[in-house]
Amino acid sequence: MDVATVPGAGAAGGLGAGLMSFCGGKLTPGFDLVAEAMRLGQHLTGADLVITGEGQLDGSSAGGKVPVGVGRYAQRYGVPCVALAGSVGSAPTKVANTTGVSALQALHQGGINAVFSITPGPVSLQMSMDQAAVFIATTTEQIVRLVTVPSRAPARAKL
Question: Domain range for residue 30?
Answer without folding.
Answer: 1-38
